[in-house]
Amino acid sequence: MKVISDAKILKDKIGKSISKYGNSAQHNLELFLNYGMKGEECIFLDAENQKGVMAYRKGGAWKIFTDPLCKEHEKIDIITKAIELILKEEEAKKIIMEDISEELRKKIVEFSKDRKFRVLKPSYSLFWPVIDLKDFSEEMPGKKWKTFRKVRNNFFRENEVVFKGVKEVDKKEIKDLFERWKRNRRDNDRVHFVQYLKFTDNSFEGLDLFRAMEVNGQIRSIYGGWKIPNSKSYYSFLGIHDYTIKDLGEVSYLDELAVAKKMGIELLDLGGIEKEHLGFKMKFHPSKMYRTDTFSIMSK
C-alpha cells in the first residue's frame, strides 16, 4: 500500500477507483476534495488494482474518510492495512475513522483484538434513511401521501415558484442563502458550511442534479446530489433552505424525489443524521435505513 499525496495523481487514481469500485453515498471525488477541513491534505492510500482508501492528513493527525474503494469482501483487509500503515510507517498515535459503515466497524473491532491498536467507542453515529422511489409518484395518490399532496398544492397556490439550474443562479445569491440557513442550524451542522461554499465556488461540480427554488422573487432553497456509483441509487447531498416560508423544506424534498425518479433512480439516500433528529426525514416514508459510525483508533 502506497501513500499518494500528489494532487494530480491522487485525483486520477481516486476517480478511476470510484468508477470501478464506488458503491456508497460518499464515494464521490468532488466530495472528497471539498470535504477536508482547513489545513488537511488529501491522501489516497493506494492498495493497487484501482483499490484504496481516501484519507486526510494534517501534520501527524490522520482521518480515514468512509469505507474503502474495493469489493465488499475486501474491505476489512484493505482498511486494516491502511490503519497499520498509518500507525507504523507514519507513526501516528491516533486515527479518526469518519462515517464508517456499522458492519465494517464491527469487523475492525474484532480484528484489533490481537493487534497493536485499539478501537474506541463511536463518538457519534449517523442514520441514513433510504426511499424506494417505486413507492413514490409525482401525483402522490392515496392516503399515504395525502398530507404531502395538500402541503405541495397549498404551497404552489400561495407562492410564485420558479425552479432554476446552477447556471441560472448567481453564486452570491447561493452564498447569501447559506448564511441565512446557518443562522437557523445547530453547531454540528455548521461544520459543513465551508464545504458548501467550496462546492459553490466550483459551480457544484460532481453533482448530477442541482435545483434552486426561487420563491416570490428570491432564492429560498437549493437541493442537489449525485448518482451513487455502480448502482441505480442517488445520494441527496445538499438540501438547504432559509426557513422563511411554511413547508419550504418539504416542498423542496418532494421536488427532488420527483426529478430523481425521472432520472431513472430507484433508491434515494436522504443522507445521514443523528438519531434524535430523524423526524423530518422519516416523514417521507423511507423503506430502510443504515448506520455509519465515527470513532477513533489508538496505538496500544
TrEMBL record:
Indicate the segments forming the Phosphatidylglycerol lysyltransferase C-terminal domain, all copies: 42-220
Source organism per entry reads Candidatus Staskawiczbacteria bacterium RIFCSPHIGHO2_02_FULL_34_9
Q: What is this protein called?
A: Phosphatidylglycerol lysyltransferase C-terminal domain-containing protein
One family name in Pfam for this protein: LPG_synthase_C
Q: Which domain of life is it from?
A: Bacteria
